[in-house]
């Protein structure tokens, strides 16, 4: 009985305490809210000590990180910019090949002939540099060879439109039997005429230089033509052929610069 009374007394005290808190909240709510606000501000000040240090670390990291990341990734960014510029140039060139094919291929051929002649003169350094000779080669590439390559490859692609192995071999044979000999004669004759040789001297030069040049051409051009006809689109075949002709042009400009047939070397 005594235990039951004690338990009831404890419950009554708890109820009175809760009723007092409940009553205080409703009788003076402003004081209770103010007390709660002061308690939260104190907790926030204690918690804010760590964010202050963290913000300081983040600020120092931000001051250092741009240079770190820029130095770490600058090779990648510069490489990306370089690739973009290269891709932009290639796209521009391909667009020019389609919009102005003859002019673009002629200028390309002239530049390759200029570079090849400069290389040829550098290799044969016994003679002084001949600017007129380089201009002759550039003019030949611009006026004669560039346009002729454009029309020749278009003509061959119309006669043999396929790109299988047999058709490719036919194209190579046609080039070696028709285009190659004809352009070699034109090249040697034009350069001899621009150097002041008359008809007899040009014929003598052809008798001396044409056959060796043709033999070397048969040894060099079939593989180049096979790659060009087999794997390259028609509108890019003159460009690839000009690229292959760089080494060949070094040789043929040397042949074209030889002394007149029958004359002693100077």
What descriptors fit this protein?
0% strand, 266 residues, 7 helices, 2 domains, 87% helix, mainly alpha, globular
Explained architecture:
- The chain has 266 residues and is an all-alpha fold.
- It folds into two domains: 1-99, no CATH class; 103-256, no CATH class.
- The protein contains seven helices and no strands.
- The longest helix is centred in the first third of the chain and has 71 residues, at 29-99.
- The protein is globular.
- It starts with a helix and ends in a 10-residue tail after the last helix.
- The model is unreliable at 50-58 and 60-73 (pLDDT under 50).
β-strand percent reads under 5%
Shape, principal axes of CA atoms: globular
- How many separate domains? 2
Radius of gyration: 44 Å
The main β sheet shows up as: none
Residues in helix, % = over 70%
Number of E-state strands: 0
Number of helices: 7
Structural class label: mainly alpha
Q: Cα distance, first to last residue?
A: 144 Å
Oligomer class: single chain
Low-pLDDT stretches are 50-58, 60-73
Average pLDDT across residues? 77
How are the elements arranged and paired?
Elements: H1 2-27, H2 29-99, H3 101-123, H4 131-159, H5 165-194, H6 199-231, H7 237-256
């Amino acid at each position: 009985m005594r235990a039951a009374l004690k338990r009831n007394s404890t419950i009554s005290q708890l109820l009175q305490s809760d009723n007092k808190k409940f009553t205080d909240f409703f009788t003076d709510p402003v004081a209770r809210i103010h007390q709660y606000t002061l308690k939260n501000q104190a907790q926030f000040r204690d918690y804010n000590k760590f964010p202050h240090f963290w913000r300081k670390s983040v600020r120092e990291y931000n001051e250092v990180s741009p240079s770190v990341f820029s130095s770490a990734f600058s090779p990648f960014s510069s490489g990306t910019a370089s690739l973009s510029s290269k891709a932009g140039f290639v796209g521009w060139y391909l667009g020019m090949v389609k919009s102005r094919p003859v002019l673009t291929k002629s200028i390309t051929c002239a530049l390759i002939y200029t570079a090849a002649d400069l290389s040829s003169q550098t290799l044969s350094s016994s003679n002084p540099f001949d600017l007129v000779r380089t201009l002759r080669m550039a003019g030949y590439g611009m006026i004669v060879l560039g346009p002729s390559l454009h029309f020749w490859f278009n003509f061959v692609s119309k006669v043999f439109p396929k790109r299988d192995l047999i058709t490719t071999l036919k194209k190579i044979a046609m080039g070696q039997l028709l285009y190659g000999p004809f352009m070699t004669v034109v090249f040697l004759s034009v350069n001899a005429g621009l150097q002041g040789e008359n008809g007899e001297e040009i014929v003598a030069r052809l008798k001396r230089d044409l056959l060796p040049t043709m033999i070397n051409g048969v040894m060099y051009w079939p593989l180049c033509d096979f790659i060009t006809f087999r794997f390259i689109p028609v509108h890019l075949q003159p460009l690839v052929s000009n690229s292959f002709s760089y080494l060949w042009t070094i040789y043929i400009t040397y042949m074209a610069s030889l002394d007149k047939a029958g004359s002693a070397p100077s």
